[in-house]
Amino acid sequence: MSTLEERIARLEDLEAIRYLDAQYCRHLDDGNWDDLMTLFIDDGAFDGLSHPVGKAEMKEFFAGLADAGLSEFWHFITNMEIDLHGDTATVRSFLWQPCVSDGVASIAAGRYTDTLVKVDGHWLYRVKQVRFHFFGPLDEGWAENQFALESAKRAAVHP
């Protein structure tokens, strides 16, 4: 059985990780690239639409999303599962993201699977991974929990 101090430390870690994820969403949605990069270790990586490694590559990737047609987006994360392993953690969550892509109101849905590490008492991302299962225009009939197979195929970056 764990001691009260161990349980409190665990709860503090869980809350710090939830806060890290909230900061990620806020900085990404607001386009605060410098602040976003503070949430990653120096050689951290984003694994999703591309695979930039290191803060300079990640900053360039995120800043370039608008040039690729993604002009607005808002992240909503649910069902966060956190597995602590000492000074490392694995975090899984579901994502749904209203967005404007090439001027068209769209919706994306997927899953984050992240690897975190505790550095100097602070949790940081080692790898922030996203896999989209659905991406399509809202006028294609988006309904919560209902994904069109063809839209999912178009959105699949990695099998």
Structure description:
The protein has 159 residues and is α+β, with helices and mostly antiparallel strands. The protein is 30% helix and 43% strand. It has helices at 4-30, 33-37, 55-63, 149-155, and strands spanning 40-47, 70-73, 76-85, 88-101, 104-119, 122-137. A hairpin with a 2-residue loop joins β5 (104-119) and β6 (122-137). The longest helix is centred in the N-terminal third of the chain and has 27 residues, at 4-30. It starts with a helix and ends with a helix.
Q: How many β-strands, per DSSP? A: 6
In the predicted model, the low-confidence regions spanning at least 5 consecutive residues are 145-149, 151-159
Spatial separation of the terminal alpha carbons: 42 Å
User: Helix-strand pattern, N to C?
Assistant: HHEHEEEEEH
Which value, in Å, is the CA radius of gyration?
17 Å
* Coarse shape: globular
| Alpha plus pi helix count | 4
The biggest beta sheet reads: 6 strands, mixed
Q: How does the helix and strand content classify structurally?
A: alpha+beta
Give the overall average pLDDT. 85
Amount of helix: 25-40%
* Residue fraction in strands: 35-45%
Helices and strands in order:
Elements: H1 4-30, H2 33-37, E1 40-47, H3 55-63, E2 70-73, E3 76-85, E4 88-101, E5 104-119, E6 122-137, H4 149-155
Feature tags:
159 residues; alpha+beta; 43% strand; 6-stranded mixed sheet
What is the gist of this entry?
With 159 residues, this protein is α+β, with helices and mostly antiparallel strands. The protein has four helices and six strands. The protein is 30% helix and 43% strand.
